[in-house]
UniProtKB/TrEMBL annotation:
GO terms for molecular function: alanine-tRNA ligase activity; aminoacyl-tRNA deacylase activity; ATP binding; tRNA binding; zinc ion binding. Consists of three domains; the N-terminal catalytic domain, the editing domain and the C-terminal C-Ala domain. The editing domain removes incorrectly charged amino acids, while the C-Ala domain, along with tRNA(Ala), serves as a bridge to cooperatively bring together the editing and aminoacylation centers thus stimulating deacylation of misacylated tRNAs. The keyword Magnesium does not apply. The keyword Cell cycle does not apply. GO terms for biological process: alanyl-tRNA aminoacylation. It catalyses: tRNA(Ala) + L-alanine + ATP = L-alanyl-tRNA(Ala) + AMP + diphosphate. Keywords: Aminoacyl-tRNA synthetase, ATP-binding, Cytoplasm, Ligase, Metal-binding, Nucleotide-binding, Protein biosynthesis, RNA-binding, tRNA-binding, Zinc. Its cofactor is Zn(2+). This is Alanine--tRNA ligase. It is an enzyme of class 6 (ligase).
Amino acid sequence: MKSQDIRKQFLQFFEERGHLIVPSAPIVLKDDPTLMFNNSGMAQFKEYFLGNATPKSKRIADTQKCLRVSGKHNDLEDVGFDTYHHTMFEMLGNWSFGDYFKKEAINWAWQLLTEVYKIPKENLYVSVFEGNPAENVPFDQEAWDIWKTLIDEDRIILGNKKDNFWEMGEQGPCGPCSEIHVDLRSEEEKAQVSGKSLVNNDHPQVVEIWNNVFMEFNRKADGSLEKLPAQHVDTGMGFERLCMALQGVQSNYDTDVFTPLIREVEAITGKKYTSNDVKDISEEQNKTNIAIRVVVDHVRAVAFAIADGQLPSNTGAGYVIRRILRRAIRYGFTFLNTKEPFIYKLVAVLANQMGEFFPEIKTQQNLVTNVIKEEEASFLRTLDQGLQLLENVVKETKGNEVSGAKAFELYDTFGFPKDLTALILKEKGMSYNEKEFDAELQKQKDRSRAASETSTDDWTVLIDGNVETFVGYDEVEKEVRITRYRKV
Ligand code: ATP
Ligand code: MG
Ligand code: MG
Ligand code: MG
């Protein structure tokens, strides 16, 4: 089944059960001081759960563009190295705002996975909250009893507070969750190790796909819990992971969400990607694979962020986007031998593939392409020199720690985000002195504060020589060519 159809079926299933289908909120949040990017489906509905706003419908479903690269959820370090964490991913979700509760949510989730998508029941596990008396939260007997009618008891796993209890903050709505995991191991592997202990990431082919959160309590200031007057359901299923399960592959990168992008990288670079079922690959091939995964993952994050109005810049959310792109550029440069801009060429593939469902990636295709191309060209101008400098510094360094002043020079003169320097050093079993780096940064800030009091925010770009403020993609002429950013 094609990914397009998998997404459609999810939405259709919940529409048939009375849910209003809404579009994804933008990936970038401009008016939430607590969050830079949407990192889950529920973020756009937060006010409904807090009772500050009323939803259009008590049942809603959608797919949400999410980015997990900062704050509480930061998966960046895993991306490229594992096969199921992305920077940008889609989270399919269904919600009940004071309407249906555990019985419907669990039964529908099960029906969708096993009857519509036809995942064999013996490949699924579920988890239920075990309870935590010290913190006043009870075992989720209700969820356990419902699951028992659907699945063998030995496939219901008890989970702790970290994995199976959701809280919005120290106070406010909270409740237990029940997760669904899929076991995609080969039959041989299953025969070697069996059963329960495999849930929760003990094996790369046993993966969490769907989290069902049941908001039933309110935590008060004194730490005690009371039942909420109305109870809510909030679910999130990783779309790319679901596609992996349904397309009979063992890696998200072997699904049709990623293969068109991978084929394009292969065509541009002449390198080959080996899918996950090819075992015993060389060290060099492994590095190529990681680099290709990083590139095809990161281009999605960067492209969707730009299409939603977040341009790369030197501050705030813009700098997060720039860092992601520079990480991809360096992986290409070092492991795919790309000395010229090439990531921008993937935008056309992405627009072609995702444009039907997410029209913004099509309407903003020119802008996104030009911005990425310009970013690549600009970083490539200093990348080689920076890498050489780092190489020399590494040679001269006794021990494992490079000086913070050198890491700062790379940041300041060569545009190396500090996590990029850290990543390159980590590949050599080294690190840099962060305290020294921070001290250098502070010195520079003091200098520039003294030099100038003017500053611009990260939405300001220089368009063909004229300073303009970018206020969202609707307002920017599509044909306008961005030649250079104003340095902030
Ligand atoms: P994991 O334990 O695998 O990191 P999670 O428990 O952090 O996932 P949730 O916050 O429960 O994830 O999000 C709901 C669903 O979104 C997950 O069950 C998973 O399918 C998907 N998901 C979460 N993080 C990612 C990611 N970085 N890339 C792709 N899918 C993800
Ligand atoms: Mg996680
Ligand atoms: Mg988890
Ligand atoms: Mg989870």
